[in-house]
Structures are given as C-alpha cells and as structure tokens.
Fold each of these.
Amino acid sequence: MQFGIFTVGDVTTDPTAGRTPTEGERIKAMVAIAQKAEEVGLDVFATGEHHNPPFVPSSPTTMLGYIAARTEKIVLSTSTTLITTNDPVKIAEDFAMLQHLADGRVDLMLGRGNTGPVYPWFGQDIRQGIPLAIENYALLHTLWREDVVDWQGKFRTPLQGFTSTPRPLDDTPPFVWHGSIRSPEIAEQAAYYGDGFFANHIFWPTDHFRRLIDLYRRRYEHYGHGSADQAIVGLGGQVFMRKNSQDAVREFRPYFDNAPVYGHGPSLEEFTEQTPLTVGSPQEVIDKTLTFRESFGDYQRQLFLMDHAGLPLKTVLEQLDLLGEEVVPVLRRELDARRPAHVPDAPTHDSLVAARSAAAVTR
C-alpha cells in the first residue's frame, strides 16, 4: 500500500491573512512539501498539470526532475498528465528522461483535466476528448514498447521509422494510472491495458466512484490480467487535521468557505458528510479512510490533497507531520493486515523490472 500527497498547485489568497503568494513562492513551496513528504515517510508525491491561472504546475517533469535531485526514496508522479492535449511523443520522451534522472522513481497519471479551454490552447477540440485520450495513449504505449514505430492515426501526423529517446529505464516503461472523475470509457481503457485506475475521490459521493471502480475491476478480469480484486486501484482524499477536531474545523472553515474549488457552495459539514473530505483529529482521518476499503475493496494507493485553498506552507508542513507520524502508520498496519495475500502491492519500477524478467524466462 502506498500513501502520499498530490497537489493542484493553486495560487490562492490566504483568507485569514489576506496575502497571496507569488508564483515563485508557490512553486518553491511545492518543492518543500515534496521533500517534507519523504522526510515523514510517505511513498508518493504527485503534481497536477495546469496551463491557466491560478495554477502554476504547467511543466510537471521539470518540477519532478528538480525534486528528484533533492530526494532519495519517494516516488514522483503526476496527478494529471494531459493525454488529450500533450503530444504522446513528448510525453514518452519526457517521462523516460525523468525515469533515468530519478533512478526509476517515476510513474504518471493520465487524465483529460477539468479546464475546457485547454483544448484550443493546444490546437485540439474538446468534443474529441475521449477519442483523443484513447488514440494518444495507444501511441504512447507503443512508443515505450517498440524501438522503431510506424504509426498513423486521426489526430497527429504519421510516424515512420521513429524511435523515442531515451528508451525507458531498464527497458521498462513507467507505470501508468488512468485518472477519472466521471468517465467509464477511461475505466475501460485502464482495464484493457492492465494499467492502474485512479478514482479522484474528492468531490463526488462514494456511490459514483464505486460504480466506476467496479466497472474497471470487472473489465480488468475480462481482459485476462488477473481477478477483479487484483486490479490496481488508487484513490484521492482531502484532509485537514488538528489534535482536537473542534480546532481543525474552526481553523479550516475560512479556507473551505473561500476555496476556488469548493467554496461558496455546500457547507463544510455537508461536504464532509457527502464526500471523503475529513476535517478533524488524526483518529477521525484514520476511521474515515478505513471505510474506503469497505466501499472499493483492497486498493494500492491513497493520495491526500493537503496544500490548497491558500493554506500557508507552515500549516501544510504541520499537516504532513500529523499524517506521517499519527495517521499513515496506523493505516498501513490496518490495511496490510486486511489485504489477502493474492492482492498485489502497488507497482514500482523494481517490481515491474522483476515481472518483466520473470516473463522473459517463461517464454
């Protein structure tokens, strides 16, 4: 089981202090948060990809490469790589390069994003979102597995005798998660390839995501990758903690009320009741997170959103201390004890290399 954090990289005014960080300050804060995540024993740091204000992470591999040089163990990932508007050739080469720089501590999560105007900014049509995701990933998957590629599709110029460089580290591509909030076609795509499916379980009720994950598990088994309960599932979540739950609610309320992503809508109490958002003590975070297994089955990755809505860096680092010291050790122990032996761990570069070597021996 992997635990980590993901960031959307928003530049938001702190509603309690009235101060807005500069873009440079926010970028440096994200680096500090990644380093802190490793320090407290988390497994994964993931960044989103956005190309519009108020967000800053427009170049995830640049940021992750910088973080790779300052960390040793933590897996570096994206929480969105825009498979619809990025050229698959550039994705293939950028992430292979990052693999080499990070000694394999790399995977990525593909998605379509939630900003409609990004499509024309990069010369695409939002009405082709699903077909773009399907075709572009088919090419990306091929580029990482075939040394010389001849390819023709609908959305980009053909390739003739093309070799993507550098080749993936140890001839083993990064593990891919397909992220989705609402699209069964993406769950089907993840199942078809035997990749991971990440349900960004932060805004919508559990029943919605249960249907998506159930579909992915059934189709994963249908395509012969293993039993449904062996499918590779990841979940998002949001937390804000203090030792005393009343203190957590009082401190977080102004950030929730003014947050660009969910402010000025349902109340904090309504949101925590209907979504995975947990605002309270570490024990309350533990208790609620353990219910995810009851809804979705055994899963491999849990990421938390913690640095958003204008929360100052000092507060986020305090949150990470609580997560690493009081929450994650209990969740690891409880979830590992409940997971059947035949359910796999989260894939890593080393495990993928070993599986590739074992498959070569049996051929």
Amino acid sequence: MYGAERQQLLAQQARSNGRLDVTAASEEFGVAPETIRRDLAALERQGLIRRVYGGAVLLERLDFEPGVNQRDRTRADEKDRIARAALDLVPQRGTVLLDAGTTTGRLAALLPQGSELTIVTNSLPAASQLAGRNHANLHVLGGRVRGTTLATVESWALEVLAGLTVDVGFFGTNGFSAARGCTTPDTAESAVKSAMIRACRRRVLLSDHSKYGDDQFARFAALEEIDVLVTDDGLDEQAVAELNEAEIDVVLA
C-alpha cells in the first residue's frame, strides 16, 4: 500500500472515530509505529488532525465533549483498575472530595461501607451512589448542573469551596501533560475544579494514559499542584519520566 493510500484511510478513520491510536494503526496496516507517526504528521500539516500522545484527534472534534454514558464505556477496564488502585489512597477517616468524572465515579462505588468519611462532591452520579450509605456524611455542592458531565458548576459551588479544607481530593480530567498541566474543555467546570484543587491538602489525579498530551481549552491545575497520578500501565517510560520531573508520584494500575 502506498503512503498516500494509507493516509487516506487514516483520515477516514479519524472522521469516523474522532481519534487515531498509533499502536492500533501500526498493527492494522502492518507497518512500524514510526511510519504511522510520519503519516499523522502529514495529515496534521494538511489541517485534518492534531497529534496527541499516542495518536491524534480530529480537529473538527476538538471542542466535542462526549456525555457521561459514552465516556463511561471508553477504556472501562483501565478505569476500573485505576479506581481500585486509588482506593489505597482513601483515608480510613477524615474528609474526601470527589470531582465529577467516570473514573472518580468508579472510586465512589468502591468506597467501603461503614467508613468514617465526610465526602464532598459536585458529581450527581457519585452523590446518587453514596446517598444510601448509612455512615457516609455526604455533602453535594450546589449550582448549575452541566448536562454533559452531570457536574454542578458556577457561583454556588465556588462560594462553598472557598470555605472548605479537605484532606484528600480525587480529580478527573479531559487531558493532562507536562507542558500544560490538567485541562478540560469547559471554563465553568475548570473554575470549579481549580477551586477544588485549592481546597484540598492532598490532590490525586485519576486518568487513563490516552489523555496524556491531549491538552484541552481551559487549565484547572498545573502539574506541580498534583501530588499523585493514578493511571494505567499504558503510559510509556518517557511520559512517566516527564511527570516525575514535576515531582508527581505516578501509580501505574
């Protein structure tokens, strides 16, 4: 197959799926990963895609944010492993903050019954899971509910967060990188996440490896503000080294 033909097929896949994975494309076309990376560079020069860690995303979909159900089905196995690993970082007692997100939602489901925790969240799905727990002291942040993420945002949430001090916070993200920190497409959600970061003594980021290098519109935390990253073992050694330079503890689930 000629390079131009392969690039045309890659462009079609990007339009269908919204993103491309270097490893998967390499196996599908029977070529080296370096060949796929050169193809992606050519497509990027044509203005069709933007290269990110491990692959590329379609430029037309950079502002597209999938809903909760779609995101929950994406990399579900990795998210389950990340949530189980993050459970070791939950204190036996004290205060915990759960940011909105499908991986933090999995962590909420794993919190042990009868734990002596005060839990703060802006996630309606997480709150729904925890509301029936007998010993859970649950606080739900108010505000406007974003239909895309089912997270509460804006001034009501910000005002409450300004007066809180939380032992450990668990955060989701749409993208993160050594260069740009933790990012999300929506400015209202970014503002609440930033306020949550400031409210927590210890901050744990939960994210699968595919989000590394996929920088979004609004930054809510610099990497130096994150204490621990819990991700899956798909994150390569170079990325781990870059994160360690920022003095982040990296846990590979």
Amino acid sequence: MRDTRESRLLLVLLVAIAFALITVDIRGGEDSPVDGARSAAATVFGPIENGVSAAVDPVGNAVAAVRDSGERHDRLARLEQENAALKAKLGSDDRDRSRLRQLDKMLKIAGQGQYGIKGAEVIAIGAAQGFSWTITIDAGANDGIKRDMTVLNGDGLVGRVTTVGPNTATVLLANDPDFTVGTRMEASDELGFASGQGDRPLRVELLNGKAEVKKGDRLVTFGSQADKPFVPGVPVGVVARVDPSGGNLTRTLYVTPYVAFSKLDIVGVVVQAPAKDPRDTVLPDKPEPTPTPTVTVTVTPSGAPPADGQYQYEQEQ
C-alpha cells in the first residue's frame, strides 16, 4: 500500500475502532458483546494454535515429559522402599523363628538337666580380647551373672563366664586353646580333660590309657567342685578319632563339639546348678541306625549246567 493521505486516514480509523472494541469488551465483563466473536475465533483457530504450539514448543514438551518421568521415578522409588521394608520384615520374621527354635532347644536341655538358666543374646564376638575365642552377651551382674558360670545353648556346652560387667559379660568359648573342661564318657564313665583347638576338634586326654573307646562315643561335662566353673551332664561332643594307645598313661581322642561356635546367637548362663548329676540324660537321642541289607545267594543246580556254563542264582534281600 502506498503511503498516501487516504491510507494514513484509514489506519487512524482502524486503530480508533480497535480501541473502541477493547473499551466495550472491558466494560461489558461477562456479558461482553464480543464474546460470540471470540468464541467463534477460538473454535476456528484453536486447533491450529495447538498444532503450531506442539510443533514449535519442544522444550515445553520435554519439561512436561521430565516432570512426568520424575513422578514415575518417585513412585518407583517408593515401591522399592516398600519392597525393601517387606523383605526386611520377612527376614526379621525368619530370624525370630530361628531364635524361637534355639530357645526351645535350650529350654529342653535346661529342663532335662534341671539347670536354672538366664537367657542371653550374643552381641559381639572376640571383643577386645586379642585372638581369644570369646563372645559378649547382653547379661551381666545386674542379671545375676557371675564369673565362672557355665554357658550352654540348645546343642551343648558353649563355654564359661570370664568377665562380668553391670549389663554384659564375656564368655570364653570351649574351642579356645586356653579352655579346659573335665569330661566323662557316656556309659563307660571314663574321665578325661578336653581342650580347645580353635576351629579343629576338641582334644581329649583320657586318664585311662587302656580305655575302650570308639568313633561315635559321646562325652558330657564331669562337673567341678561346687559346680564352678562347670556343672555336670552338659553335652560336649562326639568322638571323631581315637589315637592308638601305644602304652601311654593317657589316651588321646579328638571330639567334634555339638556346638557350632561360629553360629552362636541365643545362649543360657547356668545360674543354679542341678540338685543331682543328670548323668547322660541331657544327651540328644541317638540317631536310628541305618539297617544293613543282607543278601543270601542260593545255588540251584538244574540237573545239568546251562549251555552258557552259568548257574541260576536266587537273591533275597
């Protein structure tokens, strides 16, 4: 359009009309006379604007996508936390069940031997005692624990109390090289002394060098004077190997202990000794022997040897 007087006049007129429409729209509020025109324009141009916006505003779309992704990530994180909490609860339940089994076994031993025990939990292993095989339990002087008390669990002899604090105590384990306990053989009553050898079987020196001992025989504690540090009748272990006597004054045995010293959790301190020696009553039941099949072979002649020179055999089991 050429810049003429008429064009300038037309421009001024259009601007004036635009201002007039704006003024009318503002004063009209919700009843503005131009609402119909605005709605019509939105209907016509709205889809076009949306398409153009989607095409020219990838940054906005990316931000929205990241925001949604963050929400999904948060939900995933919450689910993972809930799953972890559930697994921890299940693990805790498994541990509780294991502890209940240990407690049941220990109470059974205490009942059979008539031991008065104080239950405790192992809270540390080898705490500040150098290379000694020791544990720390969460019971001490305030619970009636004293030095030189016998410690057991549901399997047998664990050790003896060596140090006592107000709320904790240290237990020297039966497999420690400085540990020694008097033992008695089941049935034969042969006496000896068992010493710890770390992660190897206990070494037992029988006082009778000619004692008849075989693999599988079992031992219990003999007991100490005034029942300290050991009460009688606590299961110690099973004979794994017997050294030849060789004319020695003593006989050496190697005994697999009943207790797994690397898996201790619930233990009991014997705070009251039995009124009488329980002897062998606390030992676990012996496993049922596996029957050995017997085979009887009968030679049945058939009058004449078979053509292949073999006999017929009947086998009974």
